[in-house]
Write a structure and sequence with these properties.
mainly beta, 3-stranded antiparallel sheet, two-stranded antiparallel sheet, 0% helix
């Protein structure tokens, strides 16, 4: 039987490992912008494909 491993990376991001496959979940509804984390820079280029869920 395959084991599912879920790791929280921070914020809404999680990494799932199952049956030799890795899935990265990073649901975000932020607008495009640049994120700086120490020496690492990440840039989000597009808006989300779905609208922000309503509470």
């Amino acid at each position: 039987m395959n084991k599912l491993t879920v790791r929280s990376v921070g914020g809404p991001t999680a990494v799932l490992d199952y049956a030799g496959h890795r899935i990265v979940l990073d649901p975000t509804f932020d607008d495009p912008r640049t994120y700086q984390n120490g020496p690492i820079t990440a840039t989000k280029f597009t808006s989300p494909s779905a609208s922000r869920p309503r509470a």
